[in-house]
């Protein structure tokens, strides 16, 4: 059994970040804390899929003995009113690092923190990992839906609304998602803040500076129907090779999934693999 996710607030250097927290039932201390970071145009609820039982990362992680903290990134959720245009990736990194320090000062975190991130959240996870020191107690990171070479250069959405091509890029074939996903997901989608969107084209160059500074194990997952990123074998080999300081780099593919893996039929399979990777990152002692 687990407790239902509950809303919490992180104090982040003067900015308040909203989040959802699930913990093991019975006041058991967590093995470690999973920090889940959503992608662009989503919210923390991305990690609490309810279209079918068993898809929610928040529920699964707590069942397996982990605390799961799904954070509304700066510019989303509670901080959207204060930061209506969003902030740069570097400022997101500073704010979230402060927010996680605040959380760790008030909650049990177990062996440390593990970043599980999707899409733009993966960029933030890599930036956090590159800046991390011993005091951050970072165990590793698992990133889905984020590479280093765009399949097509991102741009602003068309004024008339998303095209069919945009829908396929964000979701892949809609049969990959349970019926009710889009009705249940209305509360988890939101416009991407302007400053965040403006920084998208700079990512490939920024990645080349961040990757060599990541010193923890890294797992990267690409959905079978991923359309945002180039993920042929040469692309993935080059991607993995950039993490020169990481003790372990693992690249996986998730069959039967579109870009938004954590909302699809295969969400549980992906989450189990991510949490297995986290378990391997724990010190056996």
Could you explain the architecture of this structure?
- With 285 residues, the chain is α/β, with parallel strands linked by helices.
- It contains nine helices and eight strands.
- It has an eight-stranded mixed β-sheet with strand order 1-2-4-3-5-6-7-8, sandwiched between helices.
- It starts with 5 loop residues before the first strand and ends with a helix.
The pLDDT mean sits at 92
Q: What is the global morphology?
A: globular
The count of β-strands is 8
Biggest sheet strand line-up: 1-2-4-3-5-6-7-8
* Cα end-to-end separation: 27 Å
Order of H and E elements: EEEHEHEHEHHHHEHEH
Radius of gyration: 17 Å
In terms of per-residue confidence, which ranges show pLDDT below 50 for 5 or more consecutive residues? 156-162
Question: What is the helix fraction of residues, given as a range?
Answer: 25-40%
Structure annotation, total helices: 9
- Beta-strand content: 15-25%
Largest sheet: 8 strands, mixed
Secondary-structure-based class equals alpha/beta
